[in-house]
Amino acid sequence: MDRLAPFTRRRQEALDEEIFSDMKTSNPASWKTRGSSFGGDASAETKQPKPLGGEGPNSFYQGAKLRASVIKSKRPSAITKHVQDIDKRRAFMLKLAKCLLAFGAPSHRIESQLATASQILDARASFVHIPNIIIVTFGDEDMASVETHFVKANGRIALTALQGVHIVYRKVLHDKMTVEEGTRRLASILSAPPIYSLLVRCLLAFVCGSTICVLAFGGSVIDMWISGVCAFVLQYLGLNTATKSATYANVYEISIAIIVSFVARALGTIPGRLFCYNAIASAGVVLILPGFTILISALELTSRNILCGSVRMVYAIIYTLFLGFGLTIGSDLYLVLNKHARHNLDKTEAERYTMYHGTFHAENGTSPVPGGAIFGFAQTNDPHMVNGCYREPSWPWWRKELPWWTLFFLVPAYALCSSLSNLQKLRSWQLLVMIVFACCAFVANRLSNKYFPGKSDIISASGALVIGVLGNVYSRVMRGTAFTAMVTGVLFLVPSGIGQGGGLLSSDETSSTQQYSAGLQLAIRIIEVAIGITVGLFVSQIFVYALGRRKNAAHFAF
Fewer CB atoms inside 10 Å of the end CB: C or N, the chain? Predict the structure, then answer.
């Protein structure tokens, strides 16, 4: 018996440590599992063991209970109702990471969302997020082992699916759903096909391209039809051809820019200025502008995520230069093929100049300068130019810019089609919220443009401030998903801010050097808009989250 005493004492100390760890985690299920260690029936009702040091207030177990309650009060929350195995919790974490990447969740929030979920579920995981990849590391203290997973997905915004992911995420972390059921629901969301067919999405792109031509780039009624057709072709090639051919996907944006610019230049050189090249070319490619990418990169840099933010920012700038390169090639290609088009374009440009012929003589007579001269005066601020398009007051209504009262119909129409093209369900309360937020952001943009003309960053910041306050209040009061409610209005701010700066192309210059520099200016203009939106979004969070109780889950918004 003396030889067995040390072993019995060590065994009892090990059991004491297990009981103390169970008290720290406040896991009732683990008491049932440990019940058989005391020689009792594991299936019977579990009772707390008697403290080894007596039942007084200074006993070991009484102190452990007090310490466990203090530890639990410091934690954001705990899963006590739906407790499951750690392997199931980790499977939920992997599936959640896949969904956040696949459905376009705000990338600067992904790490915080996963870290909060891991802490509440006690999954013992750490995360590293780089563009399109999440590295998940699970640590096992008992086995002294580390397990690493690489989660990869090429994401695209899908509002309905992303809202469903957030609902599952919130229910699991609030202990209203088991992690096993949450994993099953996330898997069904991932495997579900798009809610709209290819033809419907192309028609939605047609409406978006048509309305944004009038709203942001000063197009006429006939311009909006052409830009809508260009957007239709753009969407079809992106969803059908580019997804089937990896080779074409690499040159998809350049090819679209060439086609749109070629068509716009062909129509813009028709005598009589029937079509506006700037409006058609800008609205035709607005759906593939990297405005959202630059916005996300600016948000990541502001959140101190240097790696992802810098990579996305450089990619978006080079991407914009590619678009400018494609627009230049398409325009020059048509002018090379049609010599009369270049003559008509030069004639149109010559109308902006006033030429005077004559001679001049010095009046003071000290050194007379003989000979004649030709003077040319250019009219830089043409009153008939509206956002780069020539509009005479005597023209019929279908050749001029639409009146202001049409904005009451066009802005909600664009917000509706933009939300649906981002895979939002038609019959949902969330869709109405998106339209209202987008309209409020547009009104704030227009009002700011009157007081700060030409300041695209300040204009965008005001619109982002309005939509940020509305979205975060909606999330706090109505328990909605802030990101999905705000994304339509934020995407609306990008082309609107670019339009306030003169569109994609500030002029119809035929010099290739000037057009390449215009492409770089476009990238700078998009960066200015994105920085303004970033400042507005972060300031709005200060207004909403500076006061109030702490959230139990991570912030799911911009």
Answer: N
